[in-house]
Amino acid sequence: MRETQTIPVVFTTVSDPIGAGFVQTLTRPAGNATGFVNIEGSLGGKWVEVLKEVAPGISRAAMMFNPKTSPQTGYYRESLEAAASSLAVEILSSPVGDREEIQKVMAGLGQNPDAGLIVVPDVFTAAQAQRDLITTLAAHHRIPVVYFIALFVRAGGLISYGVDHPDLQRRAATYVDRILKGGKPQDLPVQLPTKFELVINLKTAKAMGVDIPQTLLARADEVIE
Hints:
Elements lengths: L8 E6 L18 E5 L5 H12 L5 E6 L8 H13 L3 E6 L3 H12 L4 E5 L3 H4 L1 H14 L3 E3 L2 H5 L4 E5 L1 H16 L15 E6 H7 L5 H6 L2 E3 L1
Helix pairs in contact: 1-2, 3-5
């Protein structure tokens, strides 16, 4: 974007294209860029619902994120708090900025058998070092955790529900095709996610003593055994 104001740019998995200055509005980008965002506010409520299905006995859930790398957390708060209220779950904000803070949060949750954790979209927690630390500590302390992306579950995490990122990449190709055929980015609205995936690690669930409901297993896009 700094290099050109004329060559068309199609972006994918961007959280806040307006705040970042890529487009003026989602419906009318106005400049030479358009694309696909990876946020959907209603996911907040879904994470609480899934966590409650996995661990019906929880009465509180921590929301883990790094304030410096996850400015989009506010997008999920309204739906998250609405679902939490209806399910009698208290939401605790747990900002983390380094591994020591992650360990402190996880240790605190481990001392409360009625507590769970929601890891919201964040490039900091998704990095392999933090990802491995969180999943390892969750297993050690037997903390039910819902993650925003399947990478955690494939690394040993319990369950994830979130945007299907490869689908955004595939959809971006259609915009590239339209632009190559004469379309203009400013005429192509920025699009929201339309496909989501639920991934469950049944091996982790059994090791933690978590009984995954059959109704949840039936809805899963992927079950790791």
